[in-house]
């Protein structure tokens, strides 16, 4: 099976030596997405719901570039700095997944790149 690098300017550029996503067969694996606005390069801060929304928009943009979408996501991983924000994150998350919810893990971590409060990655199918 061949692997293919996925790249789009509709999501933030990678800040290190990695791809925005890799496609293998009919699966797409995104790298973790921070709450960075791809148009300005600025990170959204101090509003966990806006941060969550931007992370999911970034993941969605990458999946669209790969020929799929969040509707075909099978697994997301959410990394957060403060588990006390879990319910606020879930409110926004539910907007993106009103039905057919993918599997998910949510992990509190000590620190994220750029001192972000949240980072989200996904695995999705290309149908």
UniProtKB/TrEMBL annotation:
Its EC number is 3.5.99.10. Keywords: Hydrolase. GO terms for molecular function: 2-iminobutanoate/2-iminopropanoate deaminase. It holds the Pfam family Ribonuc_L-PSP. The keyword DNA-binding does not apply. The keyword Signal does not apply. One of its GO terms (cellular component) is cytosol. PROSITE patterns: UPF0076. It is an enzyme of class 3 (hydrolase). Belongs to the RutC family. This is 2-iminobutanoate/2-iminopropanoate deaminase. The lineage of its organism: Bacteria, Bacillati, Bacillota, Clostridia, Peptostreptococcales.
């Amino acid at each position: 099976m061949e692997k293919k690098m996925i790249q789009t300017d509709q999501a933030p550029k990678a800040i290190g030596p990695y791809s925005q996503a890799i496609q293998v067969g009919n699966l797409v694996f995104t790298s973790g997405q921070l709450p960075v606005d791809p148009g300005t390069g600025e990170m959204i801060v101090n509003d966990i719901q806006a941060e969550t929304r931007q992370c999911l928009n970034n993941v969605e943009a990458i999946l669209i570039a790969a020929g799929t979408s969040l509707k075909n996501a099978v697994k997301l991983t959410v990394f957060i700095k403060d588990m006390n924000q879990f319910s606020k994150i879930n409110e926004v998350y539910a907007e993106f997944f009103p039905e057919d919810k993918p599997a998910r893990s949510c992990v509190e971590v000590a620190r994220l790149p750029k001192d972000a409060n949240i980072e989200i990655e996904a695995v999705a199918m290309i149908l």
